[in-house]
């Protein structure tokens, strides 16, 4: 069976037996079941209806519960954890409003196809008819982001429901399974019962005739683009795809915002499709065929007056080699073998570019010197969480050829994703340094993640790109044809008056912080942050509104 | 026509005509229509799909757009504004994730029956089929909180849709009207058309035979409780209800968490039903009749094992004098006149209690000395926003008999409500000082409100009740029968390790701040904060976990 959807062998999902003759609360049974299924981290922001879950934690110490001060941190952290481990974390959310606060980062996780077991407390079943103040339609909210939803009906069902939730979250493809747990289901007593296994279904292999069809396309001599997304952007997929491109002349692109792109070291570099539709159209302009590999058809992120939604040229044919439910890596390797029979996955597609020099930048802080500073400190094995938006435009180029690292993007466009994903990534990959490159406006949605980083002592270095503006929106204002905007419009896109002081904000949540106003200062602060254990924040002061 | 649901005469809701022969974008038409309907404040956190709305602001300067850094601040501020003015503010939210971030405070606003025109941008209609990254099911999310939802189909419909939205929000009863506006509807051109009026429907009068039935109940000689909620807790309702109680021996209670309770000065005091079900059962234990006046039947906020959901005694009859859609004040005044014909609304129910003395407290900061400190500085006309949770237990008693003020509570139980509601209340009532009494854990959900207070120069004094714990949950852990919790459980309810430094956090968002560790210091800091214009924050350091 091929692993899905992360790196690791998927857990055996099993219903945990009670000790014969014992009984326990539903909540304890739930936690035990999750731990048996290797779901042993729970990002939590509980309330009264979740108190029995909280109380049961001491009975199952294998479950690591991580408190966040806001639900957007809970769900974003579960996303980061799942991206790094390939296994779901659990969340613990308080009723509809708690789920609501977590929706934005669940939206991003849905787009990343991250496995998450989303546990939402609900009023006791018998209490729901009274429409108490916190009553709301949890299922309606959950439907926005979940591939699987169940409202647990009894304490005795809870273990089986949790087993199903883990299996649903694992996929393939991965996704969000939401289990709604009424309070009386949590506090009710469960009788012992026998274990029941529910294996994760295997990933579907891509049929040989699809491989052969795609071989004909890449061998056609016509201009071919191979657009890689999802799991195709891990090492094996990249090596296979690079081999295909080398053998056939096809052009490779990565999707615009990958959930996890492996790069650096001797990995072959790959260019990402641009966020700006007009630039992406330019990248694809000569294509006569686009082969999608775990990627969606390239469309504009937003609509703009008079601009097309579809980014591929007229007459270009779209094909799919493999989708999210397929063995994407296997399909790419099979295609590579069909175009270059001597190819071996262990050596194929190795980058032969000379390592670039990473000189320490000097002088004023700009988007360019900021990117150079990050490139020259980037440690081997780093996990880079990128919510840099406009000010990060030079990052990708500057860090190409840096030591081996992973690059995690905002997959769904809901901002406030960077700090929480970095938090969860650090818990999922505790031996790797995490660098979160975070736009200032977006940082303010979920800044509470810093406190969880401090409490858990996580090795996360946050770089705030402080340009005191929603700079992307100044750009978008013009792109939608609304011109430069008058003073009232522009005021809505500025983060000044007053300026945000991210050093004070970080220190207020227990994270050591420093401010850099030159490239030299930024390098020094970053080196210190990466050297010392625990979280740090560096506010990089950029020109106002500078992209 | 009786005003509804706030204090002021409701706006005439009218479709605004274009100047003959001119044209404008849908977005401009929307803003014009809103302004004509007296919806002239918009709390906003826009994105690309809302850029045409932003661009149109300069053409309709009567609309005041207020930027917030997070959508929970947007929606909570609209709630506070609507509670103080009786008129809706507009929100401006970015697609499904933006609405998701605003759901929790919309939930509270729904429970408060606050009129809000909730404007949610959406992808252009023709772009939606491409499932671009930010695409999600906005209507499913909106259905959780909205009494009225419409997806606008064309630019020409936008003014009429906005008119309908304002009318729906005004009620009666008030509520949330969500208008989803696709980007191409915003940027499309609108032709001029004639005005069309859509008056707000009048509030329904309570039938005379209901008044007469209730007269018989209060005159029956049996123990009667009159439970006041919603609009019954404003001056006229309170005076009438107090007259009824004085004439008949009925006992008055206010609902547990009123949206807006007028009190202090010569207003008759009213005891609120307790949050703790066991205490509320005690308050109602001798009732044989409960008359609901714009209040829901009293039920437990949460369910607890072995505890009843219904808080009224067996055999007690529930009656309704008036519901949210009724002329609540008129019904109470009619009942007052029926039991005391000489009664006059201008003088009835005046408090004759001696004004309590408000000595300056001294010594350690405790919940009790904190309440005394707030009572002794509370200025005439203050608006108190109360999200004090456990540490605020003595506030209500301490401030009874203070100068005239309004008390705004968390109506829906979704925490993170205080700071945003205070922000909106200050914009809705600019001549009144706003005091936000804010529990520390709840503050961290929507702390970004401080930045909006600083930018807009709002006279809001925030008092953070810093006990470094979700103290309410320590209490709830025991109440749900889960005992005191082991160390892993207790760690999930503590806000320490690291402590939050609210002075640094406030200063980081441009709000002057100070820390008080004694009652004397708290009084001094509060007096200075209330004396100086603009927002201030005082962190009141209480014993750890102390309720």
Order of strands across the biggest sheet of chain A? 11-15-14-16-17-19-18
Largest interface: A-B, 102 and 102 residues
What is the quaternary state of this protein?
homodimer
Largest sheet entry of chain A: 7 strands, mixed
CATH superfamily of the largest domain in chain A: Thiamin diphosphate (ThDP)-binding fold, Pyr/PP domains
Straight-line distance between termini of chain A: 46 Å
pLDDT < 50 runs, ≥5 residues of chain A: 1-17
Helix content of chain A: 25-40%
Instruction: Tell me the radius of gyration of chain A.
Output: 24 Å
Number of strands of chain A: 19
- In the CATH scheme, the class of the largest domain in chain A would be Alpha Beta
Instruction: Estimate the mean pLDDT confidence of chain A.
Output: 92
Alpha plus pi helix count of chain A: 20
From the 3D structure, determine the CATH topology of the largest domain in chain A: Rossmann fold
Based on the structure given, which CATH architecture of the largest domain in chain A is correct?
3-Layer(aba) Sandwich
